[in-house]
């Protein structure tokens, strides 16, 4: 189901597949959230950005919104913006080392295009 409008999505719109985390991603998230006992988990959303259309937003979160969807894994919890869910449902999140850079990598089966620098993606 395609949702182009981020403002009109409700919990009952779809059944979500959720996310998968690689061992590397779960270890990194675990180390990030254990630095501060007030952190409840990692928050994931999207915003319009870049040449392809959308950009992932990742942040540590202390007070998740009642609108955020909660995904629990063995050692960590991931909160996802309800508005972002139709665009990123089914994504595998990895944490990779590429040269001198380390970052989260999103393997999104719904992403059809991405920009050359890898900063943004689009869903048709």
TrEMBL record:
Q: Which PANTHER family match?
A: IRON-SULFUR CLUSTER ASSEMBLY PROTEIN, PROTEIN SUFA
Return the SUPFAM superfamilies for the record. HesB-like domain
**Pfam families reported for this sequence:** Fe-S_biosyn
Which GO biological process categories is it annotated with? iron-sulfur cluster assembly
Q: Which domain of life is it from?
A: Bacteria
Cellular component per GO, a single term: cytosol
UniProt-recorded name of the protein: Fe-S cluster assembly scaffold SufA
Q: Which family does it belong to?
A: Belongs to the HesB/IscA family.
Where does the Core domain start and stop, copy by copy? 19-119
**GO molecular function term, any single one:** 2 iron, 2 sulfur cluster binding
- Tell me what organism the protein belongs to: Candidatus Pantoea edessiphila
